[in-house]
Structure formats: structure tokens, C-alpha cells
Amino acid sequence: MDTAGGAVSELAIPNSLLGLTTECYGETGVVVTVSGEIDLSTRDELAEYLNRALETVSPPQSLIVDLSEVTFLGSAGLALLLDTQDAAVRRGVPLRVVGTQRAVRRPIEAVGLSDMLPLHTTVQEALADVPVPRRGEELIGLPLQANPVIH
Length: 151
Known about the structure:
Pfam families: STAS
CATH class: Alpha Beta
GO molecular function: anti-sigma factor antagonist activity
Shape: globular
Number of strands: 5
Radius of gyration: 21 Å
InterPro entries: Anti-sigma_ant, STAS_dom, STAS_dom_sf
Strand content: 15-25%
CATH topology: Transcription Regulator spoIIAA
Strand order of the largest sheet: 1-2-3-4-5
CATH architecture: 2-Layer Sandwich
Largest sheet: 5 strands, mixed
Protein name: Anti-sigma factor antagonist
Helix content: 25-40%
């Protein structure tokens, strides 16, 4: 109640504009599904979540970030995806991004990141792009020369 004796309306304010889930696909990798808006206000929460997910992945597994339910991707989100990609590369882990809806595709294309952050249409497509884990018993298939020519 307020001081004049009337009722005070309290609106529920969500703690986050993001929905985050993780699903493990065994030796293939880990999929982080993101829903909602990725901007400056949600960047830190998503960064922490992606960092934790990346710590659970080891080569040859991949980290797949499913953005198919994202409704807004701002510059802070783009920078975070690039930072995550850099961290994944340092660990030897491929990063795959899923999401072809306008809210995701448009910002990536507008700033010229299509080559650096290629988009997959589905999680299954991204998983299929992951190299088959090596067990060590198969031949590598590199051409070997008995007498290599040195120029």
C-alpha cells in the first residue's frame, strides 16, 4: 500500500531477457540454446554461460551456439560471439552457430562477419559439420614422398 492508503501495483520484472539451456551430444559436442535478446544488458550473463560450456568441451568436440530463438542480436552479442570463437580456437574446439532468421542473419551480414561466423540452419546440420572423432587407428592419408624435393 502507498502512504495514501491505495494499493501499489508491482509488476514482475524478469531477471533476464535470455533463456539458456545446454545439451550434451556425447563425443560430438555441446549445444547451447539461447532465446531472447542478446545486447549489452544480457552480454555478461551469456558470456559466463558460454565460458562454462566451453570448459566442458574438448577436441574434437564442438561448441554449437543455437541462436534460432534469438529475437535481437546487438553489437555486444556480435562481439561476444567473436570472443567465444577466439577462446574456442585457442582450445582447438570448433564453434558452430545456428540461426538463419533475420534477427541473427542481418547483423552478422551487415558488419561483414558471414565468413567468420558462418550460420547453420539447424543444430543437426551444425552437428553433421563436426569432424568424426579420431580414435588413432585410422590412416591419416597424407601424401608421403620417399625422396622429397627441396627447392
